[in-house]
Amino acid sequence: MSSGKSTTPKQLKGHERFLLWLLVAFIRTWGRTLRFKWGAEVQALIDEPVVPSVAVTWHNRLFVSPEFFRRHLKKRKVATLISASSDGGWLSGFFETLGIKPVRGSRYGRGAQAFREMITANAEGYDISVTPDGSRGPLYDMKPGAVAMAQKTGAPIVLLSLNFNGAWRLKSWDKFYLPYPFSRIDVRVDRVGHFAELGTEDLKEASIALKARMDAITEDELVYGKG
Description:
Helix content is 37%, strand content 20%. By secondary structure, the chain is an alpha/beta fold. It has a seven-stranded mixed beta sheet with strand order 1-9-6-2-5-3-4, with helices on both faces. Strand 7 and strand 8 (177-179) form a beta hairpin. The longest helix has 19 residues, at 14-32.
């Protein structure tokens, strides 16, 4: 985490909120065409009583993760870390319309305060959604924030991978996925468990092990040669 230099998160203006509403309506319509497929492990997560967790997802799958939570994990409340930048203002507004609580900050600004707000949200029953390679990469880099959050909150870590049957890839640092309409999304999870007893000096090693487990359930032909 950063030293948490204090910055004021950028907020959207009135006309920007209207444009966002149009964009969200379009994306929601697009999202409804997608078909999610999963196995017994994911079904157990859906059916079991809610245990507030630290949910880890790669940054380039953010287009579909809110739709999966909204449609199939309705019992769960979600909070997620969003950059305090102007770009983050758009993403924050988008997540708010989906019922996801945005917490503004990153390692580049307002990091420590945002970390504390995420801990509070978890204590209030929210899943904490973490994209460990965001917001600027490198791609599929497991920064220690997810493990640190699990250590501080005592919440279990759940790895969530959303793998695409067909999608466009943007020319961004993370090769962001935009799934074809009516395509299939294969959902996989790995319920890693608790890190509350982990020492601070072990964060790096634990993050390396977490990345290996995340890689095992992630499909990306550009990186892993599978897809």
